[in-house]
């Protein structure tokens, strides 16, 4: 049997909620965008911490461990690097080739995803990402002074802006762009919430510092890390922890707030499925709609009364569920049986000559071909091992 990338035949009513893009291509575009967004957020964390060292020299020795805590990989860091010194943390988060969430590793994986679907993305987007990767790969923290490091992380942030700007400027608003947009927004919402959680529990050294100049400087640093300091000051003027939390979690207009990300991710999700936004049918649509509803009617007072850490922790778990739902519904691959291949119409079997798979190799016998299937009237994907 020739291994082909195919889609089964849905009924007319079912096809309204089935994306036409192959799951392999959708998966690569989704993760390409999400990984670049992840690299961008890590750079933001480090860049702001470099400036925070200057403002709060007394706390500089302790200011780097929260960045490791934000990743959730503090045990791995301790095993490999020991003490969370400035040099160790920067190397771990930026240049470590073996740590999958370092900036370099994220860009390498994003580049591999982009390379596997170059036929589906603009050439300008590939060229930007390729150059972005080589920019980071060719640097080393050991050779840069403090001011050069700050400029380096700012450059990473600007390269990320350019990458996303190219996508927004020239990608057709089809399924590819919506998978791209959904990936970056899910990742952005997650990282914004992680930043708040780390600030609340780790950056503040003593209870007596609440409301102090130290506390205000740290909350200002949180806002700067999401490029939200100026927008916040225009709305609220003075730094107040409750207002910062509301701005970063519940604001409907700030592009990096959790609620804004969720609302726009939902628009892309429904554009892909074809279902009306008022009528969520697929699992990720329902999960996302429920989460948005809770955020839209939440107040910062209720969030703080419930417990900020508990609220953020629950939010991250539900984001993981949404990500899992997106994967199972649109991105997961399975191998076709011979019976399924025999019953498929030849018109649904496009040639795969020279077409790279997700890992860059051509499809061969025994490989896993992406197939979208219908289950109980919903578009889902399954894997048969």
Structural class: mainly alpha
Principal-axis shape: globular
Helix count, DSSP H or I runs of 4 or more residues: 17
Strands ordered across the widest β-sheet? 1-2
Order of helices and strands: HHHHHHHHHHHHHHHHHEE
The helix fraction, in percent, is: 55-70%
Number of separate strands: 2
Radius of gyration: 22 Å
Largest sheet: 2 strands, antiparallel
What gap, in angstroms, lies between the N and C termini?
17 Å
Q: What is the beta-strand fraction?
A: under 5%
Keywords:
single chain; 385 residues; mainly alpha; two-stranded antiparallel sheet; 17 helices; 63% helix; globular; disordered N terminus; disordered C terminus
What topology does this entry show?
Elements: H1 12-15, H2 23-55, H3 65-71, H4 74-81, H5 86-95, H6 103-116, H7 123-137, H8 146-170, H9 175-203, H10 213-225, H11 229-236, H12 241-249, H13 258-273, H14 283-296, H15 300-306, H16 308-331, H17 338-343, E1 373-375, E2 378-380
Textual characterization of the structure:
This protein is mainly α and 385 residues long. Helices cover 63% and strands 2% of the residues. It is built from 17 helices and 2 strands. The protein has helices at residues 12-15, 23-55, 65-71, 74-81, 86-95, 103-116, 123-137, 146-170, 175-203, 213-225, 229-236, 241-249, 258-273, 283-296, 300-306, 308-331, 338-343; strands spanning 373-375, 378-380. The chain has a two-stranded antiparallel ribbon with strand order 1-2. A hairpin with a 2-residue loop joins strand 1 and strand 2 (378-380). Mean pLDDT is 80; it is low at 1-17 and 344-385.
């Amino acid at each position: 049997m020739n291994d082909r990338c195919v889609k089964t035949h849905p009924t007319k009513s079912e096809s309204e909620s089935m994306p036409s893009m192959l799951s392999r291509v959708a998966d690569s575009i989704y993760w390409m965008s999400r990984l670049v967004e992840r690299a961008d957020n890590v750079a933001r964390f480090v860049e702001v911490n470099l400036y925070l060292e200057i403002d709060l020299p007394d706390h500089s020795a302790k200011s780097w461990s929260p960045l490791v805590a934000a990743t959730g990989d503090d045990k791995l860091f301790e095993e490999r690097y020991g003490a969370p010194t400035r040099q160790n943390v920067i190397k771990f988060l930026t240049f470590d080739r073996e740590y999958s969430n370092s900036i370099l590793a994220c860009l390498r994986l994003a580049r591999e995803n982009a390379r596997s679907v170059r036929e589906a993305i603009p050439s300008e987007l590939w060229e930007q990402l390729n150059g972005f990767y080589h920019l980071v790969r060719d640097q080393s923290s050991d050779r840069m002074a403090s001011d050069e490091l700050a400029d380096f992380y700012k450059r990473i942030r600007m390269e990320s802006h350019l990458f996303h700007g190219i996508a927004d400027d020239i990608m057709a608003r089809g399924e590819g762009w919506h998978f791209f947009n959904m990936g970056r927004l899910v990742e952005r919402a997650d990282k914004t919430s992680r930043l708040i959680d780390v600030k609340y529990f780790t950056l503040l050294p003593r209870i007596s510092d609440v409301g102090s100049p130290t506390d205000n400087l740290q909350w200002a640093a949180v806002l700067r890390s999401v490029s939200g300091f100026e927008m916040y000051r225009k709305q609220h003027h003075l730094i107040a922890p409750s207002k910062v939390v509301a701005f970063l979690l519940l604001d409907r207009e700030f592009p990096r707030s959790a609620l804004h990300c969720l609302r726009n991710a939902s628009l892309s999700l429904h554009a892909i499925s074809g279902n009306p936004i008022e009528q969520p049918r697929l699992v990720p649509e329902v999960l996302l709609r429920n989460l948005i509803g809770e955020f839209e009617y939440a107040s910062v007072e209720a969030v703080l009364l419930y417990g900020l850490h508990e609220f953020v922790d629950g939010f991250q778990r539900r984001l993981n569920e949404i990500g899992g739902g997106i994967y199972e519904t649109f991105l997961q691959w399975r191998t076709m049986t011979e019976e399924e291949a025999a019953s498929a119409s030849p018109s649904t079997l496009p040639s795969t000559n020279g077409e790279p798979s997700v890992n860059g190799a051509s499809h061969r016998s025994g490989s896993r071909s992406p197939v979208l299937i219908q289950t109980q009237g919903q578009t889902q994907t399954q894997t048969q091992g």
